[in-house]
Amino acid sequence: MSDQPAAAEPRRLTTREAADRLGVKPETVYAYVSRGQLGSRRAPGGRGSTFDAAEVEALSARGARREPQPAGTDLAFRTGVTLIDPEAGRYYFRGVDAAELAGRYGYEEVAEWLWTGTLRPGVRFTAPPETLAAGRRAVGALPPHSTAMDRLRAAAVAASAADPLRFDLSPDAVLGTARALIPTLVGSLPVAGARDGGDGTGQGQEAGGTGGAGLAPRFWRRLTARTPDAPSLAALEAALVLLIDHDLAASTLATRVAASARAHPYAVVSAGLGALEG
């Protein structure tokens, strides 16, 4: 026999105690349980549930406090990518300070890391020639007064029609579509101040492709005819990184609904773009 005392049972909290610690309603505590964010155990006698105090503390530290939004307010959605620390005035992508990421890496590098968990310095996203040509033709056929959102939606639909494998929803296929669709959307927009070049696309000298430049220089040419300097491109690159994930827009809901219905990636992006017109 051992003289060692039995290990103390971890402290457990009632539903009300857990709710008070998390700063939420009891109903929200059960929502955390249903989402797999918090474990529970039936209380002795079968009346109510109890929760491990350490697990509740860990959930609180991860920023779990978020009550359901009252009717009529802006939509907010939970994300597994971003953690916002309002007290420090900072936010994090997968535990890494977003501002530090933006200062060290470009948009494509951070996007690739968020999607795959692997950091690939210098990675570039390239638009397939067929889908890029289809997007540019569609955008070029629009009336001159068309908005940027009109052009992006038209490019997404045209690129979709040009991709015979768009219904392949395997993870690798969806990832490949994402890498191709982003530069396709940017490359389909007319270059600011460019002459037509006779093909109706408004691409000027860039009509043949996107080249080996990163996304930020290509996007800059669609925003302004002014020649960029290094600090300006760095600022645009940082802005793209800092805005790479968000959960405070109706477009988030639209894309999630489309994706949950197993729409292909082009349709998912189109749903989000449509919501942004609201």
Summarize the structure.
The protein has helices at 15-22, 26-34, 53-61, 98-104, 107-116, 129-140, 148-161, 171-188, 215-223, 230-242, 250-260, 265-275; strands at residues 12-14, 41-42, 49-52, 82-85, 90-93, 96-97. The protein has 278 residues and is mainly alpha-helical.
Tell me what the structure shows.
- By secondary structure, the chain is mainly α.
- It folds into two domains: 12-61, Multidrug-efflux Transporter Regulator, Chain: A, Domain 2 (Orthogonal Bundle); 129-275, no CATH class.
- It is built from twelve helices and six strands.
- It has helices spanning 15-22, 26-34, 53-61, 98-104, 107-116, 129-140, 148-161, 171-188, 215-223, 230-242, 250-260, 265-275, and strands at 12-14, 41-42, 49-52, 82-85, 90-93, 96-97.
- The strands form two sheets. A three-stranded antiparallel sheet has the order 1-3-2. Strands 4-5-6 form a three-stranded antiparallel sheet.
- β2 (41-42) and β3 form a beta hairpin.
- The chain is elongated.
- The model is unreliable at 65-69 and 207-211 (pLDDT under 50).
Number of helices: 12
The separation of the N and C termini measures 72 Å
Strand order of the largest sheet: 1-3-2
Measured by DSSP, the beta-strand proportion falls in 5-15%
- The H/E string reads EHHEEHEEEHHHHHHHHH
Radius of gyration: 24 Å
Which stretches of 5+ consecutive residues score pLDDT under 50?
Answer: 65-69, 207-211
Largest pleated sheet: 3 strands, antiparallel
Mean pLDDT: 83
Q: Tell me, what's the shape?
A: elongated
Number of domains: 2
What portion of residues is helical? 40-55%
